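Appendix B: complex inputs.
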Amino acid sequence: MIDGPFLAIETSCDETAAAVIDARTVCASVIASQAQLHTPYGGVVPEVAARHHLGTVNVVIAQALADAGLGLRDMQAIAVTQRPGLIGALLVGVSTAKALAYATRRPLICVDHLLGHVCASWLEPIALDPPFVSLIASGGHTRLDLVYDLARPSTLGQTIDDAAGEALDKGARLLGLGYPGGPALELLARGGDAGAHRFPIALGGKRTRDFSFAGVKTALLYVVRDEGELTPGRRADLAASYQEAIVTPLAARLLDAAREHRVPAVALGGGVAANGRLRELVRAGAAHAGLRVAMPERELCTDNAAMIGAAAQFTEPVPWPDYLAMDAMPSAPPGGIAV
Ligand code: KG4
Ligand code: ZN
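Resulting structure:
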């Protein structure tokens, strides 16, 4: 545990974020999203992301310190997302964090981004303690973890192809919606009938905790190709049916895992956790099974630095100045989260 307030930095994808954290309290959290910058390209362009982080990171850190009413010298450590992510984007955060930690003679904490998503619910006001089962569903990852120890979650299952958010983004694109597609698809789906089209639920018949979304995406591709011009009503029905085929296995496997491992709570994380239909399914299933549900606010579900500050408290700090040779890593080490 870090004694006193510390700074956390996140730049692994298209959000430049900084937070000041003190134990379970978020003193300040600033997020500058680049999503609009990437909209014309239909996805995140790594080089554009890295350059934009470079221009924004210092401003975001200064804002987080100002919001907390603290100075850099008050920070007892610097935490940063080290892995996994876009290498150029990660490097901006890691280099910034190393420089600040070195200049202030503080330890550096190199955090796993996915551990960050798992730990988001540990922060106030949710303040969830293990044991629980965590579902992380974002644009890059879909993973189910059994959490007895926040330093070492054990992975129960993950996607074998596309991430859930990636499948939602690609489906949204097929239906003529912009990037990021998840929120736009959800909006369109609200006016549609989720039972209008039966998309396959991947790995549905198997006793597995893994996920697969490539088949659902291909099924939508064929429908759009075969039906040609879609009426607004049909588009909404397809959006609702497609969303249902993606969120149903997410909710079902999360709740099944909690029942199987007899834990009293489930937690959601990652951008897809902002999805209203997923939240509804998890809430209903959890109420039925008597489980507590931890659903962080939207800002804590999508990428942010507060969650990196939470995970930092379950990660070994590297003392000054041993971290100067530490590097960013584009992928997580084999075997999942390593601390
Ligand atoms: O965690 P996140 O901000 O970034 C990654 O680490 O990927 O997640 C972004 C993903 C995108 O695929 C986006 O479409 C999806 O989360 N997303 C949603 C919603 N809001 C964001 N998907 C479904 N419904 C939403 N409301
Ligand atoms: Zn993320």
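The pocket of zinc ion (ligand 2) is lined by residues 113, 117, 138, 270, 303 (CB under 6 Å).
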